């Protein structure tokens, strides 16, 4: 294992999301949000795809986000643990519906604003830089029910108002921002990604790309506002990344791999380069999609591109045009993938590919020539608590060790990386499955899939490992 030392100012830390950690889903005046309508169990995936039975929680369902891990009340304890590991940064999201409960309130909700003031103060007290996502799978439910969410142009201005409100409030506390978390998820889980609910007869593809256009314009307007309100701040986009490998060197497989990569790069091409790429225009034409764009949109996109590329990396993906090969599929952050015979899998079927991390980082840097920020990476696993409360998660240490080593290689390749906030430094509710047993953390939270448990925090073996990694600047990766 290399003993490469990362740059002195490298931002080591972790990442969580409001909707997976905070709980207190109606406290302090908060309105309902997307994830508050996502139950655990068999109905979850269908709802995430846009088959939404109603806009209120159903009596018979269990909603894990409603309490989550109660970060809303316990954040001082959790941040103290992050500080003990030596975190330089913590990525969090602001719950839009805490600030504007209906999404279109005449005034911001002071209780919500104050909560994040307190949260950022607590982080800064411990020398932890806040890295803040404006929309992490988050739309106030009122805007979904009333306007159809991001399919409606109204959300552009409502989001701009929200962004300006939080930039103004936290300009002295937050220097790193991101607009939309995993913006490309809109194509795969449209309700989770963008609050899109569909009914019989909808042109789903057209609605998705119309919503995408509105998000892209809203993102550019947020970049503009951030640069005006907080001089010197950095604001980025965020991609669910992971390169598609062709299963063979058959040119059809290679071309399909390129097309699947472009499906995701499309969003970042617009946010980073400031214009719709030619392949997207052809896609709209070939599929008969009519995307309404207002006069001035092209200028907004061109003039307000992002400062950096934030991305998540969990696994690579593999694609094939051979119907026999396609029968052997595996999962990975909801992106369908042919099983790669050269790679192992996690407990949840996600491909484990550290070299793919280096490949993806290099490809993103080559494509955009902008700094990167690794804002999610980690291993979801089923951790067991030993008789004396010990948790030996060597499999997680192995996963992270190999990925951090490849990130070091990418830096040596010349890739500029601002920092690394691994996903779920404390166990939180899984976005994809709604489970608690799919754990990512260095810190165990005593809560099960049914919501039982005392919420007690327990340090895992990986807690002490990551502390050592940070203290050594990434030079010491041994367990």
From TrEMBL:
The molecular function terms of the Gene Ontology recorded here are: beta-glucosidase activity
Could you confirm whether the keyword Lipoprotein appears in this record? no
Q: Is Hydrolase found in the keyword set? A: yes
Q: Which UniProt keywords apply?
A: Glycosidase, Hydrolase
- Entries under Pfam families matching the protein: Glyco_hydro_1 (PF00232)
Which residues act catalytically here? 376
Q: Which GO terms describe its cellular component?
A: cytosol
Query: InterPro entries from the xrefs?
Result: GH, GH_1_N_CS, Glyco_hydro_1, Glyco_hydro_1_AS
Enumerate the Gene Ontology biological process terms: carbohydrate catabolic process
Query: By its UniProt entry, which PROSITE patterns does this protein fall under?
Result: GLYCOSYL_HYDROL_F1_1 (PS00572), GLYCOSYL_HYDROL_F1_2 (PS00653)
Q: Which family does it belong to?
A: Belongs to the glycosyl hydrolase 1 family.
* Name of the molecule in the record: Amygdalase
Please give the organism: Paenibacillus xylanilyticus
């Amino acid at each position: 294992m290399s003993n490469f030392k990362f740059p002195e100012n490298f931002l080591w830390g972790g990442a969580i999301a409001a909707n997976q950690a905070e709980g207190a889903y109606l406290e302090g005046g908060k309105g309902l949000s997307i994830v508050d309508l996502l139950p655990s169990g068999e109905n979850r995936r269908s709802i995430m795809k846009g088959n939404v039975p109603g806009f209120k929680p159903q009596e018979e369902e269990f909603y894990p986000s409603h309490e989550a891990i109660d970060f809303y009340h316990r954040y001082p304890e959790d941040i103290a643990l992050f500080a003990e590991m030596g975190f330089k940064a913590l990525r969090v999201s602001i719950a839009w519906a805490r600030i504007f409960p209906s999404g279109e309130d005449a005034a911001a909700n002071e209780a919500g604003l104050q909560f994040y003031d307190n949260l950022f103060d607590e982080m800064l007290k411990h020398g932890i830089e806040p890295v803040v996502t404006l929309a992490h799978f988050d739309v106030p439910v009122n805007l979904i029910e009333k306007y159809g969410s991001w399919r409606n142009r109204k959300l552009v201005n409502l989001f701009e108002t929200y962004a300006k409100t939080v930039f103004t409030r936290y300009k002295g506390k937050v220097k790193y921002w991101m607009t939309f978390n995993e913006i490309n998820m809109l194509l795969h889980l449209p309700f989770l990604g963008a609050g899109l609910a569909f009914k019989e007869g909808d042109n789903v593809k057209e609605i998705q790309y119309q919503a995408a256009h509105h998000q892209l314009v809203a993102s550019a307007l947020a970049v503009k506002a951030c640069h005006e309100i907080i001089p010197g701040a950095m604001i980025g986009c965020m991609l669910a990344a992971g390169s598609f490998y062709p299963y063979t060197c058959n040119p059809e497989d290679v071309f399909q791999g390129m097309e699947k990569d472009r499906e995701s790069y499309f969003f970042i091409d617009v946010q980073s380069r400031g214009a719709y790429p030619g392949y997207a225009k052809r896609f709209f034409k070939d599929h008969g999609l009519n995307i309404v764009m207002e006069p001035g949109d092209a200028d907004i996109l061109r003039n307000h591109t992002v400062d950096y590329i934030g991305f998540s990396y969990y696994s690579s993906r593999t694609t094939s045009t051979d119907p026999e090969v396609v029968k052997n599929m595996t999962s990975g952050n909801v992106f369908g993938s042919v099983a790669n015979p050269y790679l192992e899998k996690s407990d949840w079927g996600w491909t484990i590919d550290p070299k793919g991390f280096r490949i993806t980082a290099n490809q993103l840097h080559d494509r955009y020539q902008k700094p990167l920020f690794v804002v999610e990476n980690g291993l979801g696993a089923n951790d067991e608590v030993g008789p004396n409360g010990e948790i030996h998660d060597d499999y997680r240490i192995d996963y992270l060790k190999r990925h951090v080593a490849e990130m070091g290689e990418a830096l040596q390749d010349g890739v500029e990386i601002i920092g690394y906030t691994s996903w779920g430094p404390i166990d939180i509710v899984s976005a994809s499955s709604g489970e608690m047993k799919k754990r990512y953390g260095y810190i165990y939270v005593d809560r099960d899939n049914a919501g039982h448990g005392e919420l007690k925090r327990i340090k895992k073996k990986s807690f002490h490992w990551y502390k050592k990694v940070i203290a050594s600047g990434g030079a010491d990766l041994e367990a």
